[in-house]
Amino acid sequence: MSLLHRLIYIAIAFFSIIDGLNAQDAHFSQFYANPVYLNPALVGTADGNRVVFNHRQQWSKPIKYTTSAVSIDGKLNTNKTGWGVQVLNDNQINGMLVQTKATATLAHRIEIKKHQYLGLGLGVGVYQKKVNWSDLVFEDQIDPRHGAINPTNERFGKEKIANATVSVGVLYLSENLFGGISASNVNRPLENFTNDVNERLAIKYTAHFGAVIDMNQPGQKQFVSPNIIFEKQGPISYVNFGFYYGIENISVGLYYRTDDALIGLFGLNYSNFKMGYSYDYTISNVATGDNNSHEISFAYLFELPKKYNKKGRYKGQCPKFYKYLL
Fold it and tell me: How far apart are CA 323 and CA 326, in angstroms?
């Protein structure tokens, strides 16, 4: 790809986001490895306090997107109420647009039947988006013989904007079934990098449903977990469906994101430590060059003291859910 074509491609991607035409929240392929981000009602569902790190590199040429998140979640003393905090950094279009976001989340669950729970979650966050206008090259800067050497007459907009955002979610959990619905940006924050554009961030809707099916053999633990996840934000929507297969402490998965990518996953669970790797093989024409994606996750569970699990107190809802899925 020539330099001119690359600049044109980057400019189109950049201004479509700045003008509010394609503003999207970051997404992850290891959905359940990032529970605080997937659904606020998921915080506190593990039997302890967990620390999670997620990193995703989406594409590399001609443009690159990288997203990193660190989260902590656990239970309050009632053991029916979960809490969570997360810091996320989303670096888009080779660093031309950078978002930093901090979110605090609370969730509460009630037992509707034996080993069946219904939960509600609320997340409140603040974020800043920064535009690196100096990294852009405009047409009037390009000299046919010497490249980009001239100053530009373009008028730049704001360098930074800051907003608050609200997310809500509902969750159903049982020993082998789980599902939930969440909505992010329900307050539709205003994003106006330029004075002539006043776009509001679209609400992101997510629905996720799955099951864990035991296939244990004598002396060997096995499971299969089919899952489906639907995401929609503005005009863009995806359906992700596939399954995990696990044997002992190892799990593998295969997913298909409609009209976009095939996703392969590998997970390792050892004691209280989990790690996962996934690879997105892009099958759509949304990008050229190296448009595949890599994602890693690490999690550690700090188990609750025994006093939190004594008789009459609320215990963990879904150990299979946490132990196996990415």
Answer: 9
Considering Cα of 144, then 145, then 149, then 150, what sign does the dihedral take?
A: negative
- Spell out, as residue ranges, where the chain has pLDDT lower than 70: 1-23, 60-62, 78, 133-157, 195-197, 286-290, 305-326
The answer to pTM > 0.85 is: no
Distance separating alpha carbons of residues 199 and 1, to the nearest angstrom: 32
Q: What is the pLDDT of residue 10?
A: 47
Residues in Cβ contact with 267 at an 8 Å cutoff, skipping those fewer than 6 apart: 244, 246, 250, 251, 252, 253, 274, 275, 276, 277, 324, 326
Q: Taking all residues of the chain, what is their mean pLDDT, rounded to a whole number?
A: 82
pLDDT in tens, 54-86: 999 987 666 788 999 999 999 887 678 999 999
Q: What is the DSSP string of 62-103?
A: S--EEEEEEEEEEE-TTSSEEEEEEEEEEEETTTTEEEEEEE
The CATH architecture assigned to 3-324 reads: Beta Barrel (2.40)
**Counts of helices then strands in the chain (DSSP H, E):** 3, 19
Q: Are 180 and 171 in contact (CB under 8 A)?
A: yes
Q: DSSP of 263-292, one letter per residue?
A: EEEEEEEETTEEEEEEEEEE-SSS--SS--
**Residue 36 contacts residue 46 (beta carbons within 8 Å):** no
Q: How far apart are CA 133 and CA 93, in angstroms?
A: 12
